[in-house]
Design a protein that fits this description.
Number of helices of chain B: 12
Strand content of chain A: 15-25%
Oligomer: heterodimer
Number of strands of chain B: 2
Largest sheet of chain A: 3 strands, antiparallel
Number of strands of chain A: 3
Largest interface: A-B, 30 and 33 residues
Order of helices and strands of chain A: EEHEH
Helix content of chain B: 55-70%
Radius of gyration of chain B: 22 Å
Radius of gyration of chain A: 20 Å
Distance between the termini of chain B: 41 Å
Shape of chain A: flat
Shape of chain B: globular
Helix content of chain A: 10-25%
Order of helices and strands of chain B: HHHHHHHHHEEHHH
Number of helices of chain A: 2
Chain lengths: 115, 324
Amino acid sequence: MTGGSTTGDDGATAPSTGLQEKRQGWPLWEVFVRSSRGLSHVHAGSLHAPDADMAVRNARDLYTRRNEGVSLWVVPSSSIITSDPDAKEQFFESPQGKDYRHATYYTKSEGVKHL
Amino acid sequence: MATTAPVEQIEAGEQLFRDLIARDSRIEPRDWMPEAYRKSLTRQISQHAHSEIIGMQPEANWITRAPSLKRKAILMAKVQDEAGHGLYLYSAAETLGTPRDKMTEDLIAGKARYSSIFNYPVPTWADIGAIGWLVDGAAICNQVPLCRASYGPYGRAMVRVCKEESFHQRQGFEILLELANGTPAQREMAQDAVNRWYAPSLMMFGPPDDDSPNSKQSMAWNIKRFSNDELRARFVGMMVEQVKALGLTLPDAEVRFDEETQKWEHGPLDWNEFAEVLAGRGPCNAQRMERRREAHEEGAWVREAAAAYADKQAAARAASVKAV
């Protein structure tokens, strides 16, 4: 699998693989949009741009043509560090079987108000 | 890289791929996938992206001649959307491993395809209305089910595209409605445009099911959700109703609802013409490719200047870091 992430949050190349491809073209940037005050920046997609300033300008034109945002982040895709995609199961195994971390585990209080 | 991974890892990946498809879940870029799945998606998504990019031409050509400032502004917004749609789709295609520049090169070299609908001429303002109503309408019909395509990045790109596309169809409908309620000449112009765009827009769904070898595999992979003929029939049914609101007619005496199959039927389509246009012999193929090449060449200085500026800024930053 060649590098270059994107629209796929999962797609960012893990630096440890050393597979980050040296493209001839402009670098890839991941774009995050804050839709309004009080909310987090959310991943919207990716784009190519020669530098950070152009990436922000292009992100505005590409991802906020309809007032979708009040703030933008652009991050070089190569800077994103991901959990090892090939080790999904082991990595996320810890919470499994720990239902007691959820309120729904505790059923004896059913019918008791405000609890 | 898949080719160097140990056998048991590939087997596990293959199993996961099959499970995900069986559960109607999504495949993400770093997952193992069959080479044929990767290849088929790369082709489909990049062709889709190229179509958005080439699709800007027939409409951009009318911006200077749009009948009012309002229509000019709307058309510019629409053309800008098409560029955006092309970029979302290129991003999705890239996650499958083909670099962006390679896709651009393939389009310019004439190695890649784009939707043949954009190889038809757009001689009047009513054509802009008919393109919005029929061509974008057919595109929406095709694209809504693609929001659930099994490949995550493609589905996400399509969600974004579909949200924006509905304005395109409505603005086209309004252009036709205004002309249909205008002078007799305007009305005639609207009907003529609908007459010319009807059959090509039906052919946008692709060849009939019994002549579409890739469809079956694509449906087995949950990329396509409905067959070409199913989508086409659905589209015809919608147009039959909408054309009444326009006060115009569809140029198809054989349109009818088949009570037995519960599906809309339409008259025969000229699949030889479709094959000709697809093979590059449509009325505007050469012109569209020529314009795409010119635009790429004429834009070279902008790309070079942006790259030179970026290099200069990076060098200046490096120098100031050293100075500290």
